[in-house]
Amino acid sequence: MRIDLLDLQVYQDLLADPGLLGRKLRALTPGSTIVLDEIQRLPLLLNEVHRFMEGQGHRFVLCGSSARKLKKQGTNLLAGRAVRRFMFPFLPAELGGDFDLEEVLRYGALPVVWQAADKADTLVAYVQMYLKEEIQAEALVRNLPGFARFLPVLALFHAQVLNLSSLARDAGVARATVQGYLEIAEDTLITFKLPSFPLKEKVRERKHPKLYWVDPGLPRAVRGALGPPGPEEKGSLLEGWVAVVLRAYKEYRKLFDDWGYWSVNLPSRKEVDFLLRKGEEKVAIEVKSADRFQKSHASGLRALGDLPGLARKILVYLGRDRQKTEDGIEILPLQTFLQEVDQGGLWENP
Length: 350
Prior knowledge:
With about 350 residues, the protein is of the alpha/beta class.
């Protein structure tokens, strides 16, 4: 059975009579599977879900695009009986021969957008629906126009170290308001944060997290910039997309245990985009949108030195040739890197 709470009639019926769900469930064969879509619209239904999990052994798949309402005090979170899973935009392995990096960086890979005849129009409509259905309909902010104006500013921080004071100044709103807006963006699953990875004592490392959008098309759509990405934009889009791919494999395949980024403050700022940890081993990854390797691209990886447990230093770029520097930094074409990620080979030092 599938119950879609975006269906207005279904939503209104259950809102007026939550017991209706119980009567429907009681008519099913014990052990049935029930899909409840957009469960955040009616969190009170979780009481019935809990009851029928215990009483009749039903299996529930609870889908939603926002965790915010479910976090409110008093919501039944199923006493630890629910396993949380995330779904992501299409991965290269899922798209197969249809994968096109330029299309992904321009429009993203959300299924509803990727399969649309007109990707640009669908992506714009998706953003508008997000503001209407997720933000306005759920009354998540008092000032919807202010939140709508905040999103294009937040888009500029894609793949950037997050500084609340700077973001508040650029958005022209109070720091406390920005904090609330950031929580809404994360709770409604359009952004996520990557923490800093502390590695070295007596080194002035950056502590703020980095911010990423969950799909490269979204920050472009909220800025109204859907033409081919320019060189100045491509770097952050590629880094952000690789972050999403890694996050998906962490969720789907348990590719690594923990991750973050590493950066040293001025005067000699060095940064590594991703540090993955699995057990006691680490893999450092730097992503560049260039199609030719330059020595300066690896400065962050070199700054790590002989870090204990560091199994590999990888620089991902858009060139064709696999290379290796004298100090052991591997230079991998994007396609080669994606194959290693998909096959779980990141932890195998060639």
